[in-house]
Structures are given as C-alpha cells and as structure tokens.
C-alpha cells in the first residue's frame, strides 16, 4: 500500500509541477463556469433543481475529456522518457504501478471538480439549493470520472506515446457514449444491453437529478476495475517484450 501511495503522490505532484496539469485545471474551471452561467442558469427563470440538473449534465463533458487527458500521460509518458523500465525493475507489482497512477490522475481530477462547488452554491443567492442534490450530483461525477480515468490509464498502458493514448482513450469513451444512440436504434434485447453499456444516459441521469443509484455505482466501479485489470495485464505483457 505504501508503494501505491508513493506512486500516486508522485503522479499528483507531476500534474501540480507541470504546465499540462494547470492548463487542464484552468480549462475545466473555465468551461464549467461558462456552462453554469450560460447553459444551467441561462437567461430565463428556472427552478433551482433544474439549474443544478443542467450544471451536472454539462459537467460530465469536462469530466470525460479531463479524465482522458489526465490519464493520457500516466504510463505512455514513462515509456517515452525511458523511465518505465525503472518502475518495472523496482520491487513492486504491476498492479501497484497501475493503482498508483490511477489514484494520482483521479485524485487531481477530483480536486479540480471539487473546486467547482461554489457554482451550485451560488444558486442560494436567488434560490434554494438541496445539499442532497449537490452531494448526489458530485458523487455521480466522481464515479463517472473514476471509470473514464481507468479507461485512460488502460489506453496509456497499451500505447507507445501520449498522443496515441489520448486517441485510443477518447475512442473507447466515445464508444461507451455512442451506446446510448445505438440503444435508441436497436430492438430488444439488444436495446437493453446497449442502454446499460451507455456511459452517460441511463447511469448518470439519477445522479444529476439528485438521486443516488446503487446499480449505476456498481456499473462505474466495475468499468473502472475492469480497465485497470486490463492495464495491469498489458503492463505485465510488455515487461517480457
């Protein structure tokens, strides 16, 4: 566990000490601020719950894009810099490397999203917010973020460079998003299968409406665990190449 935390701390520090991490932080906060004022609040009177729902819906965009971009360099950067061999020859397991990298990227994404908490709180100026609604919404964002970061770590583990990792990670996330559209065009029983696989529609809507859905938490957790397991397998395979 100590090794995992050390790797996570090192990964988190790499974001804080590089322009890449600060650029992503600034862009996410900028987009979320614009989305809150233009899309969520808008220019017509709305109920506070509707504003919150729209804010969390828009925030999924920055979570998915930010998650892929933050996970992109986790393993691919080490490979490009030639430092991956040092990690693989150290007395730690591949699973610890993957877990540490994941926690570092996910931790930074969590910090960024936590900084946006003042936006829904601003609704108190002219309305009434439900703290349960806010809590459920952020829980959904963090669960979604964990799944996307895990996908990004897997893409980084199997890619030769960071650009390839970003393209692959974005493509996988795009596939899980498009499952929603495919479900609309399919007939049962495929309709239900694709609807369940969709990253956003069925699983995130309860959270953005203020309800905690255990089934969706299991889905996001399973997706994250599955891709982290695949990333571990990929890292082990590359050790013997």
Key phrases:
12 helices; globular; 241 residues; mainly alpha
Describe the structure.
- The structure is a single chain.
- This protein is mainly alpha-helical and 241 residues long.
- It has one domain.
- Helix content is 81%, strand content 0%.
- It has twelve helices and no strands.
- α2 crosses α6, α3 packs antiparallel against α6 and α6 crosses α12.
- The radius of gyration is 19 Å and the shape is globular.
- The mean pLDDT is 85.
Compact summary:
Helices cover 81% and strands 0% of the residues. By secondary structure, the protein is mainly α. Helix 3 (48-71) packs antiparallel against helix 6 (94-114), helix 3 crosses helix 9 and helix 6 crosses helix 12.
Instruction: Report the end-to-end length measured between terminal Cα atoms.
Output: 27 Å
Mean pLDDT: 85
Shape: globular
Total strands: the figure is 0
Helical fraction equals over 70%
- Compressed to H and E, one letter per element, the order equals HHHHHHHHHHHH
Helix-and-strand structural type: mainly alpha
Radius of gyration: 19 Å
Number of domains: 1
């Amino acid at each position: 566990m100590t090794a995992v935390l050390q790797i996570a701390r090192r990964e988190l520090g790499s974001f804080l000490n590089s322009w890449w991490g600060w650029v992503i932080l600034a862009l996410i906060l900028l987009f979320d601020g614009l989305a809150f004022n233009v899309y969520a609040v808008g220019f017509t009177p709305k109920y506070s719950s509707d504003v919150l729902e729209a804010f969390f819906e828009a925030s999924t965009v920055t979570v998915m894009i930010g998650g892929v971009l933050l996970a992109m360099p986790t393993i691919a950067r080490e490979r490009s810099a030639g430092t991956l061999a040092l990690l693989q020859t150290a007395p730690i397991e591949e699973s610890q490397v993957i877990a540490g990298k994941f926690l570092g990227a996910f931790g930074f994404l969590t910090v960024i999203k936590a900084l946006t908490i003042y936006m829904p709180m601003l609704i108190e100026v002219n309305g009434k917010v439900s703290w349960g609604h806010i809590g459920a919404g952020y829980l959904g964002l963090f669960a979604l973020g964990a799944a996307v970061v895990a996908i990004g770590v897997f893409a980084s583990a199997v890619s030769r460079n960071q650009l390839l990792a970003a393209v692959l990670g974005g493509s996988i996330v795009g596939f899980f998003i498009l499952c929603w559209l495919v479900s609309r065009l399919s007939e049962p029983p495929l309709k239900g299968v694709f609807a369940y696989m969709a990253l956003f529609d069925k699983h995130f809507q309860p959270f953005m409406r203020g309800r905690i859905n255990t089934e969706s938490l299991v889905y996001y957790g399973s997706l994250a665990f599955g891709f982290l397991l695949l990333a571990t397998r990929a890292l082990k395979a590359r050790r013997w190449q």
